[in-house]
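BUG: 3D viewer hangs when loading the predicted structure for this chain

Environment: internal workstation, default settings.
Expected: structure renders.
Actual: progress bar stalls at 90%.

Input used:
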Amino acid sequence: MHTDTERCVRAVRSKDARFDGWFFTAVLTTRIYCRPSCPVVPPKVENMTFLPSAAACQQAGFRACKRCRPDTSPGSPEWNARADSVARAMRLIADGVVDREGVPGLAARLGYSARQIERQLLAELGAGPLALARSQRAQTARLLIETTQLPMAEVAFAAGFSSIRTFNDTVREVFALAPGELRARAARGAGTPTTPGVIALRLPYRAPLNPSNLFGHLAATAVPGVEEWRDGAYRRTLTLPHGHGIVSLAPRPDHIACRLMLTDPRDLTQAISRCRWLLDLDADPVAVDEQLRSDPLLAPLVDKAPGRRVPRTVDGAEFAVRAVLGQQVSTAAARTHAARLVTAHGTPVDDPEGGLTHLFPTPQALAGLDPEALALPRTRRTTLTTLVSALADGSLRLGTDTDWEQARAELTALPGFGPWTVEVIAMRALGDPDAFLPTDLGIRRSAQQLGLPATPAALTARATRWRPWRAYAVQYLWTVDDHPINHLPV
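Structure tokens produced before the viewer hung:
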């Protein structure tokens, strides 16, 4: 979008928050870059240039605006709506892969050479993987500076910087303030005292956001010991690269309130990325709803409660296991089966607030489970053990970087994986916005009530007009039934 100057100028002049994250406005006279919704008076058109990423702005010598804080914009919805190499690379960079494995590790995961990835990212984002990772490190450092009392040396290494000097230089360059000045400004503006060991932050999103199905689904399917709904917030444990964490997520009118407790602050970037992915916060609900409203039978559902998101997962392997446990059983039964696995094979954790007891077991931890110990039909046991084995040995990967069609083919080849299981994993674990569940019983009932075709083949044919947002259409169709997944818990 950043190449369409006229459209960008209109967005800046109207301070349209919908375009935050789509592009950034760099002001040639002040050398500052802003988000489109920046509250300051827009500069003259001839003094504006538009860039596709914060990293591109920083690389061109612009610093972040202190008013609108463009580094905290929602991510571009493009990266979650596409499955090409650039989109997959962006999802991996957001998850901290460059910091952990370097550019060669990023390229290896995508099946390209480092030079090819560099060229593709430069073409679309105006910055290579190192610059994009550096921009992300700067934002992580800012969060740690402003929300914790960690010594600056610890902040530097936790954010992924290789030296304190690099940390200081980057923070000054990006924010035009020294780290100590950032902390002092945050302390002056703090409305409530910080809790030791807790990182409190706000996760932005594009309005509208309807929390009912999003949090209702997560709460209704919560696995005891791993997830819970408490005091208006969804809480769960997280398995992270350097340790584990506990997150609390609560919907607010203009943001998601996020409270993180991490055993290692180096995991902050990954924790935030996974929380945003879980809640589908980088979606563009206006574009989605506009497409779905074009169908007169869906339009009333969209108009009644716009802004529905797709509830995803923090771990693709975990969700795949839970999807198999949930085949042809009730939500309550699926939770019971999952809770038994957690108790037997999950890693215990301490929750200062009580309620959460374990991490969900990894595929490696489940690889040695005794099939006879599973209270499942024999065919389902085979399905689960085969899945776990494939996940544990790496022959099946279900990450944010996974090619959607390749994963579908690999899942379909496993015993016991029918269309429903494959598509629900594609929708919630892989994030495919066009995944569709025509064989789902709830979808078929809803279709019948709305006057849509009720057979899977006919419904799939009708759903072509909802593409590429059929996963969001599923969320609206599920609301026809009065099910707990559609309501925030009391």
